[in-house]
Amino acid sequence: MAKAPTVYDVAQRAGVSIATVSRVLRRPDDVRESTRTVVHEAISELGYVPSGAARGLAARSTGVLGLCFPDVDGIDEVDDLPDPVRVGEAVEMVRDVGGPVTARWSNLYLGEVMRGAELEAWRTGHAVMIGVARGLRRAQAVNELAGRVDGLAVLSKSVPDDLLAHIARRVPVVVMAGPPQDDAYDHISVDNRAGTRALVDHLIADHGLRDLAFVGGPFDSPDAHERFQGFRDALRAAGLPAPDEPAARSDFTRAGARDLARTMLEDHLTGRGPGDETGRALPRALVCSNDQTALGFLDVLTEAGIEVPGDVVLTGFDGIDATQASIPRLTTVSQPMVELGRAAVELLRSRLTDPGAPPATVNLPVRVLLRESCGCA
Amino acid sequence: MAKAPTVYDVAQRAGVSIATVSRVLRRPDDVRESTRTVVHEAISELGYVPSGAARGLAARSTGVLGLCFPDVDGIDEVDDLPDPVRVGEAVEMVRDVGGPVTARWSNLYLGEVMRGAELEAWRTGHAVMIGVARGLRRAQAVNELAGRVDGLAVLSKSVPDDLLAHIARRVPVVVMAGPPQDDAYDHISVDNRAGTRALVDHLIADHGLRDLAFVGGPFDSPDAHERFQGFRDALRAAGLPAPDEPAARSDFTRAGARDLARTMLEDHLTGRGPGDETGRALPRALVCSNDQTALGFLDVLTEAGIEVPGDVVLTGFDGIDATQASIPRLTTVSQPMVELGRAAVELLRSRLTDPGAPPATVNLPVRVLLRESCGCA
DNA sequence: ACCCGAAATGTATGCGCATACACTCGCTGC
DNA sequence: GCAGCGAGTGTATGCGCATACATTTCGGGT
C-alpha cells in the first residue's frame, strides 16, 4: 500500500500510453492482442487495481447502486451501542432457560432483500452499497450514500420525506415495500391486499368459515391497513358483513399480542357470564395482520386450552421461520423478500435507461402457505 | 436529474468560491456563520449532493469499506439465476406439507456479519459496500470492489489466493472466520476450539459423561477440525482417551446427517446382534461439529425411539435458530456473527491508521448455550 | 488613523481515469 | 507512386472536489 500504482505506472512499465491501458481494461477489442498481453503483465506485476473514484468521476457514472434501510436496532446515537465483545475474553456459559425465540425476522428480512438486490445487481455488473438511515447524522449519511451511487433503493419510511426529495434530484429513487403512493418515485410494493384476500377466500370457501375477525396492526402501518382491506374484500365477496375496523390492534410484537389476546379472552369470558364454555365466544377464525401477532395469540390460546384450529382458526402474515416451528404450524402469507430486492434493482436500471418514463409501481405477488393452523393438513 | 449541480453551481448561487462551499461541508468551523447559511440555502435550493467519486479522488480516500462474501447460492453464471417472480402474477397458494424447516442459516449468518460491519462502520463515519465473489467474472468483480474501498474484509475462502494477494497490494485486507493463519493479512477468527472445549468440559464435569464421540464435518473444513481439537483437549484434560479421528463425518447438512445417523444406528444394532436393546451401543454423548448435523441426528434418534438426552446426549455448534425450536432444544455454541463484522471493521480501521503494524489475528470468544439436549434444564 | 496578526475567503492545482480527437502505419486500389 | 482508409495508438482535456497557498478582511491595540 506504499502508493497504489496508477494507469501511468502501468503505461510506463508496459511502454504504452495511459489511453491504451484504459482501453485494455474497458474495450479490450480495440487493442491488438500483443499489446494487451504486455499491459496485462504490467498490471499483474505492479498489482494495479483501477481507482473506482477516478473512473466514476471520468465516466460520470459509478456503477454502484445504493440500498437504504431503516435502523432496526433502534440505535440513535453512537453512545447507544452495546459494547462489543472484548477480544480474548473467556468462553461464556449461558444457561438458556427458554423464553421467546429470538426474533431476527427483521434482520433476515433485510438480509434477504439485500441478497435479492445484490443478485440482480451482480447480474448487470453493478456493485451494491448499503446504508442505514440511523442516528442524528442521518441526513449526512444518506447524502453521502446518494452521492456515491447511480441509483438508490430506499426501504419505505427509512428516510424523511424532505431528505428523500433532496437526494431524488440527484439520483433515481425507488421506494421499497411502501404503500402504492402517488409521488414522484418508482415503487416496489408487496401485494398485501391480494394476499390477505386469497387467504381469507380460502378460509371461507375451503373451510366453510363464516365468523371471522381481523386482528390489525399499529394505526400507522400501511401494511396492516392493506391487509385489513384484503380481509374485507374477501368477506364482501362472500356476501358476509365486513367490519369497518379491525376487531383489535396488535403492536406487531409477540409479547404485545399475548397481552392483547389475554385481554380479549377475559372480555369474552366475562361478557358471557359465568359458567360459559371457554372460547365459545371467540370468533371462529382470527386473521392476524402479521405472524408475530398470530404467534402471540397462539401462545395464549394454547395456554387457555383452546384448540387451534379446532376451536379457533388462526393465520398470520409474513412467513417468518417461527411459523414453521409452532404447534400447529401457522398458515401464513409469505413475503417475497428476495424478489423485493431484485425488483428494486431492476426498476432502478430501467429508470437509468429511460429517465423520462413516468413513475412506475410494481406490485409483487405473495404466496399463501397453507398449514395446520387453518385446518389444512 | 437533468444535470446534477456541482460545487460550482452552488458557489455561484451563493456568491462565494468553490473552496468556501467545500469548506462549509467539510470544515464548517472555518467559515463564518452568515456565509454558511447562504451556502446551505444554495445547496438546498439547487438540490446539491456532493459527488462521492470526486471527493474520493481528491481526498485520496473514499470513506468506504468493503465486505466480500462467498456465493452461498451456488450461482456460477448469469444463466443459473432462477426466474424472478413475474410482476402481476396471481397470488400462489401452496399447500405446505412440512418437511425440513427451510435452512436460511447462511443467509442469516452473512446478514448478521453485515449488520455488525455496518454498525461499526457507521459509528466511525464509513460506508459499507458489499460484493459477492461469484461466477466466472469473479476476479473482475472483486477488483472493482477493491478499487472502490479503503479497506476490504473478506470472508474466508471467498476469494482465491492469488486474487487476494493482488488486491491486498492496493487495500488492507482482513480475512474473516478463517483458521488463524500465518499469512500477510489481518485475521478475525472464531474460537472454535475453546468453544468446543468449554462445551465438552461441561458435559464431563457437570453431567458426568465419560463415553463421548465427536461427529466431524467435511475434511476440508478448518472449523470442523478446530472443533474436533477442542473436543480432544477436553477429553485429555479429563484424563480420558482422545481419538485421533472423529467417530464419523457429516457433510454439515441436516439431510446428510440423517443418512449418516441411520447408517450408524444400523451398524451399532447389527454389530451387537439381535435382541439387543436399541441404542445401548451408541456413545453416551454425541458432540456434533455443527447444528445441522446435530439436528439431523436428533431427527433419526427421535424416530428410532432413542431419547435425548436420556439415552444419548446431543450437542451442536453455531447457534442457529432451529436449535431453539427442536425438541428437546439443542445445547450448542453460538457464533458471534455480529461481532465478527464489527471486529473486522475495527481491525480495518486500525490497519488504516497504522499501516506498518504487523499482521494481527483476533480470536473472538463464543458463548455456550446450555439447553435440554445435554441434560440441562 | 494606522499597523499587525488572525480569521475568512479566493485562486490554482492535481487526484486517476475515460475519451474525443489527432496522429502514425501498413495496405489497398488506382 | 500516391491518395485513401482503417486499425492501432498517443495527446490532451475535463470530470468535481479538497486543499495548499495567496489574498483580503476584520478586529484590537496604540
Explain what you see.
The structure is a homodimer of 377-residue chains. Chain A has 377 residues and is of the alpha/beta class. Chain A is built from 13 helices and 13 strands. Chain A has helices spanning 7-14, 18-26, 33-46, 52-59, 105-123, 138-148, 161-167, 192-207, 222-237, 254-271, 291-303, 322-325, 337-353, and strands at 64-70, 92-95, 127-133, 151-155, 173-176, 186-190, 212-216, 248-249, 285-288, 313-315, 332-334, 361-364, 367-370. Chain A has a six-stranded parallel sheet, sandwiched between helices. Chain A has a four-stranded parallel sheet with strand order 8-7-9-10. In chain A, strands 11-13 form a two-stranded antiparallel ribbon. In chain A, helix 7 links the parallel strand 4 and strand 5. In chain A, helix 1 crosses helix 3 (33-46), helix 5 (105-123) runs parallel beside helix 13 (337-353) and helix 8 (192-207) runs parallel beside helix 9. Chain A is elongated. Mean pLDDT of chain A is 90; it is low at 272-280. Chains A and B meet through helix 4, strand 2, helix 5, strand 3 and helix 6 of A and helix 4, strand 2, helix 5, strand 3 and helix 6 of B. The first copy, chain A, binds a DNA duplex (30 and 30 nucleotides) through helix 2 and helix 4.
